[in-house]
Amino acid sequence: MKQIFTLFCLLLIWLVPLVAQVDSCNFSISGTVLDAKTKEPVPYASIKLFGEEKFTTTNIKGEYTFKSLCTDDNTLIISCIGYSESICNHHHEHGRSPHFYLTQKVHQIESVLIEAEEIKEEGTQSIAQVTISKEMLTQNPSQSLAASVASVDGVSFISTGSNVQLPIIHGLYGNRVLIVNNGIKHGFQNWNRDHAPEIDVSSANSITVLKGAAGVRFGPEALGGAIIIESNPLYRREPFYLNMGTSYETNGQGLSSNLELGQGFKNWSYFLNGNYTKIGDRQSAEYNLTNSGKEEKSFGFGTRYHLKNFDVKVYYSFVDQNLALLRSSIAESGNSFVRAINSDEPIIINPFSYEINEPNQLTQHHFGKVEMNWWYSEKAKLTFRAGRQLNFREEYDVRRNADKPIIDLDLITSDYQLEWKHSGWFKSDGLIGLQYFSQKNRNNPGTGTTAFIPNYDTKRLSAFLIESKKIGTNTLELGFRVDFENNFITGRETSQAIFSDEYSFNNITASVGYVKEISETISFRTNLGTAWRAPNMAELYSFGQHGFKSSFGLLRYYTNNEGRLRTNRIIEFTDSGVEAEKGYKFINELKVNNDKNRHAITLYSHYIENYIFDRPLAVIGTIRGPMPVFIFDQADALFAGVDYNWERQVSEQLLGTFGFSYLWSRNIAENEPLINQPSMQVNYELSWNQPNFWKFESSKLSLKPTYTFRQFQAPKTVSPESLINGSETVTQESEIFDFTDAPNGYFILNLAWRFKWENFGGSITVENFLNNSYRDYLNEMRYFADELGRNIRFTINYQFKAKKS
Amino acid sequence: MNKFRKYSLLVILITAASLTGCKDDDDDVTPAVTAPPMENEEEVITDVKLIFTNSADANDIVEARAQDPDGEGVQELAILDTIKLDVSKTYVLTYEILNALDANDVENIGDEIKEEDDEHQIFYSFSNNAFANPTGNGNIDNAADAVNYNDEDSEAQDGSGNPVGLSTTWTTSATQLNGGNFTVRLQHQPDVKTSSSGSNDGDTDFELPFVLSIQ
Known about the structure:
Chain A is mostly beta strands. Chain A folds into two domains: 1-119, Sandwich (Immunoglobulin-like); 227-504 and 517-801, Beta Barrel (Maltoporin, Chain A), CATH 2.40.170. In chain A, the strands form eight sheets. Chain A has a 22-stranded antiparallel barrel. A five-stranded antiparallel beta sheet of chain A has the order 3-2-5-6-7, with no helix packed on it. The radius of gyration of chain A is 27 Å and the shape is globular. Chain A starts with a helix and ends with a strand. In chain A, 49% of the residues are buried. Residues 1-24 and 80-119 of chain A have low confidence and may be disordered. Chain B is 12% helix and 34% strand. By secondary structure, chain B is mostly beta strands. In chain B, a hairpin with a 7-residue loop joins strand 5 (90-99) and strand 6. The chains are: A mainly beta, B mainly beta. Chains A and B meet through strand 22, helix 5, strand 23, strand 24 and strand 26 of A and helix 1 and strand 12 of B.
């Protein structure tokens, strides 16, 4: 995707359409193609209408016309072939036939939306994927990364309250979904369900969700898919631009402002951006959610220097977050947990406040990256990337020593990547890469409690090869990767005795994919990919109470000779029988794009060996009273599902979009359900696009009802009371259970109005218009409180663009 | 290439190098990772001792212990002793609350509770009318019920602090009791403790059901 933007900066295209509309097949588009640099017309550029057998070329003045079109919503493909080499001098960066895909909407006079979805990263061409544009992201600048991608079918989020949200793709989340920020794996404390990636969505240029196992291209942890966040592309020859946006939301009285500015010159370019968000306590339909606000500050800049065939980019970004967790979610004993989950309302409800108290999480994330590209020949390029990330995290809990953080960790991540991209090498196009990754985790003193996560150093050396070959309308893609990973661990037992361990993994990952353009309107892609991941530190070393439960990691418990569970020693990794997770994902996508109807259907199945999950085990007597005990366990699991999306252009102005997703999953080793899996969802969005309404150049009204079904595959329910009073007993062999029933299905209605007026764009969106009370199965706070009630958000953006650079 | 270009490229390269760290400090010769810092484990309570002292005779002491030797581990809590009191006597109940996970460095958690007495209260429940004073069955079921607290927290704004319960007074009844119960519950109530807050407000630091006999 980056590539197309690089070309974009060399060749800006203005399309000035003139429209005449009489009856159904009497639309026309005409315009001019100009060179961005010289503002000269580009003659003989070939233009094709997507989905139709219609071609044209620009005349000597750069003009073109299409007549007798049956719709006003056409996609034009502007090809560089036949274009003079001097203007398209970097075209080898795009393979042999670079295309622009422009969706030309007749009522948008000057702006042309470029959708680069069809240009995909190497090794992912055959994987179903969806890209969310900056335009969509700016509609809600204060949302989390997970919430911003949740509109994609098959993607939702799993959360701990309204601030800590982790994206979930086809039932997998956490470190089974790789988050690639600006080309580098986001290095953060990625364990349990209460740690979300520190990414400021308002600074992203686009976000792509890969739904297949992209382990070959991106490395371990991309089992369930990957989320790729692209930063400002740093176009050259870009006149000075300044974008400012601000928003206000009624629920939580949240304010958010963001700013971005930049400029591209002949040889270099830069950008700067910043964001500030402050949200107070949110409200459910009926009560305040005490301590649910957040504060986020972020800042970033980048610069690029370009020589004839050499290019350097430097990026830096900083995110500072203070995220509150619901006060009523703290239950330190079995009794208070029972009380909290049996209460219809949270135990503690205070009046609205912007104040953030314990429990909360403070994180600061620094990101620095350098990328160098060298196009040493017409057909090949070398890329070197080096990244360093510093992640400082403090978590505060309601406890006797609430002023001290209970978790205080520094995580330092370094990445070095060397890639050789080539075309026409043994008649195939591809990418060969070498990667070195290291991560260092350190506990800071002063927590007043034994470190929950040990200190560790992880080092990984990887090499991968991806080749694709195009034969007619068929594309075959093959990938292969090897990883060598070493882990050194030193931690403390609760007695403060030191333990240490060392273990390593050597893994081979492979993928095979196939893309077939069946006709101009139908395409099919299929991919079989593998991926693996090492168990994370929480899965291995958790010990004792965290939140309302006591959990024990895979290396912290064993069964003694008498068949009783014991936790008094730590098992060495090599003696434990614990293995890395390995996933095999088969994903198929069929896309049909007709004039009025666009269908996309994705079918997948996913088998995971040694799938790690936590499950309730027993209730034991502790000094705090009876406590539910959880252990981490491993078993083989199977996932299968379908995502379906259907867009229908009902009339010139009216567009309907139907979405559906369903996932079936099961622990096949024990033949029992899995816990915390997304349930079936259907949604429909009806939007009315009105050009030139009153003063607005464009105005779009949309209505989106969504129904989320009750999770009918949830484990059986065993109430904590019945465990505490002994009327139910569970053992290590018992079937998996949950403490409460899965919440009922719920209906949500969202409304939005978006407009554009001169340099201003804005929106008014209403979420949960009916102010329904509901709980979501994937929110850990479902035990304690309802989801958010109605929220009205007002957003206004101002875009300034200088006429000339 | 002009000078400006040359130098700006150099600046970028230097920035790049400093950002990513040319000196590779990841490859130490010894792979050993330093241990996390030693912490005084302040969260865990392993030993609670109830100390009943006869108010008429300081040498007449009755003790009852509860122990969870592995702290957060899965070993069950053990109530080691039965509380054996004499009939018609007045006792002052105090506590010894420890974290003894590290035998060489025993933490006195009782001191910490005293420091944060405005966030803590001990509640009691016992066999009905086991005591002549207080009467009834204690204040776990109903916070307004009688328990003779000897202490009050330091947050007293107007001279009337709220009870803590690290010291309480008990006068046994004249009738004998066998196999009765005496439960102590320490509640942690940050920003929650008030004159009317009860045993269900806040979170439980310990809850220990002892057997009580009065002979």
